[in-house]
Design brief:
By secondary structure, this protein is of the alpha+beta class. It has seven helices and six strands, in the order ααββααββααββα. Helix 2 runs parallel beside helix 4 and helix 4 runs antiparallel to helix 5.
């Protein structure tokens, strides 16, 4: 049996949404980094909202949030692999939610990959520009790309929990599927239909009623004088 056309063809809308989200994130990230490099002093905190939010321009050779600073090449390869994987799987996406989420993840990975490829000290070893500091939340310093990566991962987990698939369908939980199976009965030919509890009770009463009617009551078998009818 051939698959429906809507499932067989690539969803242009989903790919367009993914690409748009990725471009917006990359543009936002790179413009913010350019402004930081041009205007902020290196290594000097600049209060924005008191102690809640500060801009602190640093260069990070490691992963997001300044982790593993001596593994720049490794994270360059990982970022490139993430980008390639998202591009390959984009053909399977039908859900707009998944398109936006993976677009944000793609944009975040590209934003930091651009830094690692083209910033000093060299290709594949470039240091990522970080500048956002929120001491009340975490001691690490991060950037716009890191923020969108975290947001996309949170929504990613929510979509998995809610059972939303890449093609836009919903996965029925085992508990719900078992409940639906308990309320179905097979028909001739293998089909099934739902039988509400009230209808089942009514059917049972209809079957029992003729049996009661086929038994004459004892007083009907006596005549008017109280003698048994012969």
């Amino acid at each position: 049996m051939s698959r429906p056309a809507s499932r067989a063809k690539v969803s242009v809308r989903a790919i367009a949404a993914l690409a748009f989200a990725a471009v917006v994130v990359v543009a936002f990230d790179q413009v913010a980094k350019a402004l930081v490099v041009a205007n902020l002093p290196y290594g000097t905190p600049v209060p924005i909202l008191g102690g809640a939010l500060q801009f602190l321009y640093v260069r990070n050779p490691g992963a997001a949030f300044s982790f593993a600073v001596n593994m720049t090449w490794v994270f360059s390869i990982i970022s490139a692999a993430v980008v390639v994987a998202i591009i390959i799987y984009s053909r399977r996406i039908r859900s707009m939610w998944w398109a936006v989420v993976l677009g944000m993840l793609l944009g975040g990975a590209l934003g930091n990959l651009i830094d690692r490829l083209f910033r000093e000290p060299g290709f594949g070893r470039g240091h990522v520009v970080d500048f956002i500091s929120t001491p009340w939340m975490m001691p690490a310093i991060y950037n716009v790309a890191d923020s969108f990566i975290c947001i996309s991962m949170v929504v990613f987990v929510l979509l998995v929990i809610l059972g939303v698939n890449l093609d836009g369908s919903r996965t029925v939980s085992a508990k719900r599927g078992a409940a639906q199976a308990d309320t179905t009965e097979p028909l001739d030919g293998g089909a099934a239909f739902s039988v509400p509890a009230t209808d089942a009770a009514s059917a049972a009463a209809d079957v029992a009623e003729p049996k009661r009617a086929s038994r004459p009551e004892q007083h009907d078998r006596r005549d008017a004088l109280g003698h048994d009818a012969t």
